[in-house]
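Honest question from a wet-lab person: if I give you the sequences of every part of a complex, can you actually get the arrangement of the whole thing, not just the pieces? Trying it with mine:
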Amino acid sequence: MNKNFSFLIFLGLLSGAFICAVIIGILPPGYEIVAIILAAIGLLFDVIAASARFYSYYFVPFIKRKNNVVTLSNEPPFFVTASGNAIIIKEEENTYASVFVKIPVYLSSTEMSDEEKLNFARSFSKMITVNSRYPMKLASQLYYLNKDEYIRRISAKLNEVEDKYDKLKADKTTPDKLLERVEGELAMWHNLFDGVNKSPSQNQMAYAMVSAPGANEEEAVAIAMQRAEEVAAGAGSIFGVTASIATGEEMLTFVEPEYSIPPATISELLKKG
Amino acid sequence: MDEETIFRVGITSILALMFASFSAAYGPLDILAIILFLVAFILIMVISFADFLLFPIFTKLLKVSTIPARDYTIPKENDGIVKYVNGLYYATGYLTANVYNYVFQAEQMIEGEESEMVMGPDKWEKAVMSVKFPFKFIAIGQAVDIQKYRDDLEGRRAYLEFQYSKSESAPNVSTSVLEDLKRRTRVLQVRIDRLGAGERPLSSMMYIETTAVGITMSDAMSKLTQQTDQLQTVFNVFDLDLIRVVGREMYSLYKLNYYIPTMEEIISSFQFQK
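Yes, you can. This is the full assembly:
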């Protein structure tokens, strides 16, 4: 919520409390019950005024709530741009664009000397201070890989080899050696299919996120993209990797919870409880 | 405590005190007025300094859940944000995780800093390998103006040096006070030296986000609690303050998934993440 609006609410509530206090002050003797009721109302205004700093965004939706549900917004939290390389957020009268930069760091501490470990830890600080003009989010995300496509490919190949095996087996002229080879191939695909379904595969990815406000969507995206390119160049020089701007589903993995736990892994997770 | 907090707490407390001062108007109900004042004063203090204690109680008592955006719900306990999609519930929760040893503004960075940093990648790798569910370790930061920061540090050092010389010449000088002043001056000096060596001061905030999936909202939320508990255990090796973020600050962290406002706005929204 707008800071000025929040301050106005604060002043309004304080004024309400102050008016109650003034009325109590000028009440003639014999109105004790009125005074105590006014004190309760005034103190309630005062307490609500104290909460206005952090909760002014909540006041109106709370008053308008239905069935004990306070609706702050019924809109999706963001929109993906047509080019699929940024997300757009409307916050009050401002438009913000956020862009994500993938930082593929594939290093393991087991392969590093102490000096390399120290340098690597320091590069984290360097990365986060890569610019001083705007804040940046640097994250390392562990997520489940989406194996849908991979499983589909294995399943198709398994079906294909099974058909081939059945045909060869039905044909009495098939040499034993060929049948044995196809049987081996079939067993291999079966093992692969069983193995891939056994446990969810995880991936770890580091990314940076930058945001920029703009008068409109195009302006916000252009500024955010420029910032993202600066960050990608900085990440490249600090970690010695090729950082690139995330797009489409890859970008959504960093934002949407369902993309970090894809449907293919859910049945397995639910079975495990 | 920043100026805005002082102003708001001051003005609301004075106003509350005004109500208590009209004892003549309340007559025999004077005691009730004092009780009302005390309750209001306590509430003002809790709201201003620890609203995370009060807000979840408030929503729980009133059984109020919140919809922050389409498909998302914050249950009345205010300890997670749940997204309903494709017939499943994805509950996301947050833990504070300021890695003091890795940020420039740390006070305890003089001794053992290098060895701590050398162990960092190993600890991180072990921690990640033992976690079997999605999570994100997030740091939001911005380099701060070096000159302004340097002036601030030098000003503080000069003040400490003045205090030291004053304490030294005092008749009943306490060695522990002198030692403490010396230590604080040393910390500032190390930070000034590091600025000279080319390091940039940083304003930062770090936290962990994790997501659990379930077939009902309560199922997803209970799995989320298990995951946050496990993360608290796993990341303990980093000597972090791992506290489950609830209420308003959790909602602010959720919004940081989509856009990053200015560092001042971020810091002013998080009383306990500074």
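Two things worth pointing out. The beta strands of chain B are 65-67, 72-73, 81-85, 88-96, 135-143, 202-214. Chain B has three domains: 3-61, 69-144+201-269, 147-196.
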